[in-house]
Design a protein that fits this description.
Elements: E1 13-14, E2 17-18, E3 52-53, H1 54-73, H2 79-96, E4 98-101, E5 104-107, E6 110-111, E7 117-118, H3 125-128, H4 136-146, H5 179-191, H6 195-209, E8 220-225, E9 231-236, E10 240-241, E11 244-245, E12 250-251
Antiparallel strand pairs: 1-2, 3-6, 4-5, 6-7, 8-9, 9-12, 10-11
Helix pairs in contact: 1-2, 5-6
């Protein structure tokens, strides 16, 4: 195992972070799991690329420490170097990713091509919790954010906060609910010591599953029909085209 080289321009480890960019003009604009072209945007709605995603840095940190543990277990060299690399990445993440809004501090979803934080509030918080990148105080901040009504809608986590410009409750990665994404957050909440929040979030997926004969789709969206009436409809992922629901699956 060799350490990744530092980079100062576009590349896999640009400015000390794992980044992506399509140099061909024919590839995906976004190369994280949220790979639609409008998935990563600033709080005011304008798009960001190329980027260094927050969860990718967290997974790199976890992988570096996991690799160091394997090296230690087999008596191989490189343990100290990988642990030091992970710690430097964590320091850079704390310095560059954390931003503040009216509700307090949180990590930006990404850094854009100019190194500026992409300050949207997203379900990406849930991916950070289980990796060890955050300390206890930071984990508590994100646990509280995840439980907020702009993300947790009672049937899973929205991919993008409903307070953000560009939010669309049926948008592919800008407001719809992906059960696997919510499940990752549930796992993270348990791992960092928030079982009650995890239980509530898991229960929300079970509630949603009743609309689909206990077989959750890859993606769903939640709409509220009738101002003040509280009638809710869940829609299957394949029932959405161009951001418009095609047919309701169930009214709750």
């Amino acid at each position: 195992m060799s350490l990744p080289a530092g980079r100062t321009g576009p590349g896999p480890f640009s400015n000390g972070f794992l980044t992506y960019v399509d140099h061909t003009g024919r590839g995906l604009a976004n190369q994280g799991w949220k790979d639609s072209d409008d998935a990563i945007r600033h709080r005011d709605g304008h798009l960001a690329a190329p980027i260094a995603l927050c969860e990718v840095q967290a997974y790199a940190y976890e992988a570096a420490l996991g690799g160091a543990a394997l090296l230690r277990a087999f008596g191989r060299p490189g343990v100290d170097e990988w642990e030091a690399w992970a710690e430097r990445l964590a320091d850079r993440f704390r310095d560059r990713f954390w931003v503040t809004d009216e509700r307090g501090p949180y990590p930006a979803v990404a850094l854009d091509g100019d190194g500026k934080p992409v300050e949207s509030v997203t379900s990406g918080f849930g991916h950070l919790l289980s990796t060890g990148l955050l300390n206890a105080e930071q984990s508590a901040l994100l646990a509280a954010r995840i439980a907020g009504p702009d993300l947790d809608v009672g049937h899973g986590l929205r991919t993008l906060s409903s307070d953000a410009a560009g939010f669309n409750p049926c948008g592919y990665h800008v407001g719809s609910i992906w059960p696997h994404d919510t499940a990752i957050a549930v796992y993270g909440l348990v791992k960092v010591g928030f079982p009650d929040a995890a239980t509530s979030l898991a229960a929300s997926l079970l509630t949603a599953s009743t609309a689909f004969d206990a077989r959750l789709p890859a993606r769903l969206c939640r709409l509220v029909s009738g101002a003040g009436q509280g009638a809710e409809r869940l829609w299957l992922s394949h029932g959405v085209r161009a951001g418009r629901p095609r047919r309701p699956e169930k009214t709750l």
